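Researcher: Please predict.
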Amino acid sequence: MVSSSHEAMHRIFQEDPGIFARTFDRLGIPFTEPVAVSLLPTDLTEIKPLERRLDTLLQVETADGGSYLLAVEAQGRKDPDKHCSWAYYLSYLYAKYRMPPLLLVVCQDEATAQWAKMPFHLGTPMWRTLTLRPLVLGPHNVPIVADVASAAEDIPVAVFSVLTHSRHPHADTMLRALSAALRKADPDTADLFKEITELGLGTSPAAEIWRDLMAIPTSFFRSETAEKVREEGRVQSRAEDTLTALQLRGIEVSDDVRERVESCTDSDLVRLWFHRAVTAERAEDIFGD
């Protein structure tokens, strides 16, 4: 049975195929930015009763006059039969469309991503008749988008980042940033990517956080009381970021330090602590006592 998260992971490329080029550009693998994209049929069934279907198939036209096919597969787990199917898909697509095909596999866990990117060889050890080399996006290489400015700059990439890192310990920070960015977007864009995000999170713990964020009425965010609550939320978020920065640097955080940071309500002070956390040698050093 196809899950909602599986559908969202490849459907997002139908809504904004440029995610493909922009994400790989950040990884140092440049692709020409698409100028036109057509959604093609995903049914690769032959005359004999053997059904084969891709998740998403796109025809991409580039600014330099070139074109290629982008086959997107959302892979939720290791499947020893998939490499054979993918090799078939690419051969069939080239035979049918006479255009170079690329295979993009998107994953939500690193183990599956590392498995998917392994080259698959057809032939003998003496002669490789065919080698399959998928492009893979997963938690190991998709950048984390955890601040509102970055999320607002490219909402589709921010959504894809949230879906890819939905199991990350600090997914809640990413979700808050995305939620704030969507509130600044036009209503049609916001509604579309809210839906994709909810589908993509499926039944993960992050899905509950997202539903709580989306349950707050938009009008609430325009009142004076709401501004105060938002400021409190920003202070709390910065406090969490401060503790996270220390932990990611391998610095032990005592209960006293944690309590002092989490109980602070002064936004300027918490911001100062966050900046110090980047270079502090001990957790206590952020206070400058």
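Model: The radius of gyration is 22 Å.
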